[in-house]
Structure formats: structure tokens, C-alpha cells
Amino acid sequence: MIEVRNLTRVFRTYKKRPGFLGGIYGLFKRDFEEIAAAKDVSFDISEGEFVGFLGPNGAGKTTTLKMLSGLIFPTSGTARVAGFDPTRRESAYRRIFALVLGQKNQLWWDLPAIESFQLLRHIYGLPADSFKSTLDELVERLGVGHKLNVMVRELSLGERMKMELIAALLHRPRVLFLDEPTIGLDVVSQKAVRQFLREYNRQHNVTILLTSHYMADIQELCDRVIVIHRGTKIYDGALDRLEAGSGARGKIIKFLPQPGAFPENWTSRHGKAVRDEDGHITLSVPAADIVAVSQEILTAGAVADITIEDVPLEDVIAELFTSR
Ligand SMILES: Nc1ncnc2c1ncn2[C@@H]1O[C@H](COP(=O)(O)OP(=O)(O)OP(=O)(O)O)[C@@H](O)[C@H]1O
């Protein structure tokens, strides 16, 4: 469904010298800086896949999604989405994909969402009956029926994002590019959006490429992730494999000693123990040592509580970036 080959985008930006004199200098001589926001990025995504697109701030994710949407042109390389070349900006292509930018609005602030939806119906030339059935389905799934006639600027962030998703899906796109769709949402709204996306992907076999800085989004929705760093793809594969193959693999053991049971300077034979303000002691240990360390802790002193957790995905990803 999506074929990307050596996609590269170089931005040339003017570097202004500071102050008024710097501005005058710039009238005569301009200093430019070139930034390769995407460098030789290649990947394939099959129909119905739900792929996470990860990378730190400025990695080139939005730039890549904008190239796939035909909003900006690549400097070199090619992309094909459902057989279309996005750079040609054909109307037929616009009907089969949607781009949702969590930090931007496509809905009109001063109109109720339903009026923007009606406008989109006319833009896409959707028949009234299919528009109604799609709208009813989306509104019901997202639970925003009572907010359709409220001005968009008066909606909460979560309600607005749900309306943005409805606007993006009214024409039943086959490919969905989602750039931070849960940014700034509270945990309940994040969960609702995630659940909606998961069900929608399964039910309609829509191909989804999702960027998010919330690892819960990625862990709950994506089996596969593409990781990009400084414009270059550094990982493409199963999320499980990324977690398992990381040097940060292992477990986190956290326990609360009974008062006075462990000396202040207690440490494990298997690794450094860190004590927090509440008295909890935390150890990062290789998965193979988990039983031995647990036994060591339980024989060392009385323990009020103990938990064993996976290393957070955030740490696995951060390690991937710092090792480059
Ligand atoms: N229009 C532009 N002109 C000049 N440079 C740009 C432009 N758009 C993006 N860049 C630069 O390209 C790089 C990649 O930006 P991009 O927005 O694609 O990153 P991102 O991975 O989406 O980051 P974030 O997670 O912060 O959204 C950054 O260094 C950014 O400053």
C-alpha cells in the first residue's frame, strides 16, 4: 500500500545574524544552512498494517508524512501510496488518504463541527446517504453526538481531536497518516482515541502510519515500528524485537523494605540499587538474573512490597538514539 524509496528532503534555511545590523548585513549577503530532514528513507507498508513511526523531536517524521501526503515535495527519492505518486496531487489520491496533524486544526474554529462535516461532504462529493451512515457510525463510536452543534473553539481538546478524526474519515480513506493524534489529551481521552483507532483499523482494514511520543499509543496499537533519527531510518521491524534486542533489556525490580530492614548503603551483588525519597529501592537487572536477585532481596531483609516490571519502552528507544 505504501512504497517509499530513498526519500530525501533537504530544507535550506536563511540564518539571520543577530540584531539590527545583522538584518542589514542579510540584505547584502545571505548565509544559508541546509538540513536534511529525511535522508534516503525507504520502507514498505502493506494494506491494513498499523505502523508506529518513532523518533525524537526534529527526527523527520512530520516531514516524511507531509511528503507522503503531497504537501511538500521530496528533494529526491520516490513514494507511492495505493499506486499514486503523492507529488502529482491528483484528486483521486486526495480521496483515498487523510492526514491528521494533532497540533493543527482542519475544522473551522467558529463553526459547529457538523457544519465543517457538511462542507467536507460537498468537497468530496459524498452521497447524502453514505455520508449520513459514515457520520452516524463515527459519532457513535467516539461518543460526541451531543457536541456536534457546539462551536469547535468551545470544545475540549479531547472532543476537538475526536471531531478532527471524524473529519478525516468521512470520505472513508484507505490510508491514514496520524501525526500525534493524542498530544495533550488526558489519559481517558487518549484511551478512547486509541480504542477507536484500533477498532477502526481492524474493521475497515485501513493502513495507518502513526507518530506519537506516547509509548502507550505505540505499544497498544502497533506491532511494527519504524524508527527514524536525524532523518535516517535506524530500525524497521517488530516492536517486540526492538524491546528484546535492546541493550536496555531486562527487568526493573522495585521493593519497599520494612523500616530498618535494609541498611542505607545496601546494594545487590547483581547491580546498583537506587533508593528513592519514599524508601523504595530499585534495581535494573538482566532478565536471566531475575530469580537470583529476588531471592537475594528476600533473604537480605523483611520486605513490605515488591514489583518486577519490564524496562519502559521509552528507555529502550532512548538507548537506541544515544547509541547512534
Ligand atoms: N519548512 C521547514 N523549513 C526548514 N526546516 C524545516 C522545515 N520543516 C522542518 N524542518 C526541519 O527539519 C527537521 C525535521 O523536522 P520534522 O518536523 O519533520 O521533525 P519531527 O520528527 O516531526 O519532530 P517532532 O517530533 O518534534 O514533531 C527539523 O530539524 C526541522 O527544524
Automatic annotation (TrEMBL):
Q: What Pfam families does this protein's entry cite?
A: ABC_tran
**Ranges of residues in domain ABC transporter:** 2-255
GO MF? ATP binding; ATP hydrolysis activity
**Matches recorded under SUPFAM superfamilies:** P-loop containing nucleoside triphosphate hydrolases (SSF52540)
Keywords annotated in UniProt: ATP-binding, Nucleotide-binding, Transport
Q: Which domain of life is it from?
A: Bacteria
Return the protein name.
ABC transporter
Give the source species.
Ereboglobus luteus
Kindly list the organism's lineage: Bacteria, Pseudomonadati, Verrucomicrobiota, Opitutia, Opitutales
